[in-house]
Design brief:
The chain has three helices and seven strands; from the N terminus they run βααββββαββ. By secondary structure, the chain is α/β, with parallel strands linked by helices. It folds into two domains: 72 residues, Transcription elongation factor, GreA/GreB, N-terminal domain (Helix Hairpins, Orthogonal Bundle), CATH 1.10.287; 80 residues, Transcription elongation factor, GreA/GreB, C-terminal domain (Chitinase A, domain 3, Roll). α1 packs antiparallel against α2. The two termini are 29 Å apart.
Length: 158
Amino acid sequence: MSKAPITAKGAKRLREQLKSMKMVERPRITQAIAEARAHGDLSENAEYHAAREQQSFLEGRISAIESALADAQVIDVTTLNATGKVVFGATINLMNLDSEEEVSYQIVGEVEADIELGMISITSPIARALIGKEEGDVVEVIAPGGVQEYEILIVRYE
């Protein structure tokens, strides 16, 4: 099985999230279950069932993060010497040639992608179109909303 790429910042963020889940959330939910259990009949205890559901969700999320970290190939973007090419981990400033809107994205692993933070998955259509290109290049991105053209303004490794 191949390792999934993840940036060093993304791995650190996941480890911090995992630590918080184990050290803060898990004890909080365990306490809520104990308190609900003390109220008596569990079959009609909504607090107990809600806490158990939260516990189940949290344990699933913990397991998913642990698995993602175990299968991750951590790449430190700041050590890359890609000579201006768009590669995994690069942060790219783009100009949408249709709307003349400037956007910035960092190409990251699937597990750390978050479009609201400007972090797009290496498997996304825009990332696939950008990989290997350089500043000044114009790329066509075939997206669900149609074809978009972007000019690469700046490529950074931070």
